[in-house]
Design a protein that fits this description.
Layout: H1 4-23, E1 32-41, E2 51-56, E3 59-64, E4 71-76, E5 80-86, E6 93-98, E7 110-119, E8 128-130, E9 135-140, E10 145-149, E11 157-159, H2 175-189
Parallel strand pairs: 1-7, 6-9
Antiparallel strand pairs: 1-4, 2-3, 2-5, 5-6, 8-11, 9-10
């Protein structure tokens, strides 16, 4: 009786389990954000060579190259992850997942966020990239769940160069807060 296929199956299950444990290691606030993602290719095409790279503080934690039409990934709370979506001949995109959950919120420990990313074909005569992440996903205290932060700057398509110069996403400063404090100070002066 040949036990090699059974051993391969057990090794695959063990490897998958260890990858999940790596991303859910203890420390910080307990809990996780489960990503339920899809990578779509504009104008169809084969998914060969496509990948999703999971980075934490610039260090690669995981690279997903199979089943990108529907994948799940568990991220430990309390970190800032960058997911890089790429395929040769297509424009690379990034999403930032800030998994910090503020103290004092009704944290339930396990959250789910569903999303999809479409990779557009790049023109052969021009190599383009985005100069900042397309979106930041973070905890919304009012909704008590994770959602897109729609208040950051919109990334721009720029010519790709060998030298990687990125425009960092700056936090949104609500101008009405400054206006309200200015109005309050003027009222106090009167």
């Amino acid at each position: 009786m040949n036990r090699l296929p059974a051993l391969r199956s057990m090794l695959l299950v063990l490897t998958t389990g260890l990858s999940s444990l790596t991303l859910n290691a203890a420390g910080g606030r307990s809990g996780s954000l489960r990503l339920d993602g899809r990578v779509l290719l504009e104008e169809g095409g084969a998914a060969s060579g496509a990948s999703v790279i999971v980075l934490d503080a610039g260090v690669e934690l995981q690279r997903i190259t199979e089943q990108l039409a529907g994948f799940t990934l568990d991220l430990e709370l309390g970190h800032r992850y960058t997911l890089v979506f790429s395929q040769p001949g297509r424009i690379t995109k990034e999403l930032v997942f800030d998994t910090a959950v503020p103290d004092g919120t009704n944290a339930r420990g396990r959250y789910t966020f569903r999303f999809q990313v479409t990779l557009e074909a790049a023109r052969p005569d021009q190599q383009l990239r985005y100069d900042a992440p397309l979106a930041i996903i973070r905890f919304d205290a009012a909704e008590e769940d994770f959602d897109y932060d729609r208040t950051h700057a919109t990334p721009r398509l720029v010519a790709a160069t060998n030298k990687r110069v990125r425009r960092e996403v700056k936090p949104f400063v609500d101008p009405t807060v400054q206006l309200e404090s200015w109005v309050a100070s003027k009222r106090n002066e009167q």
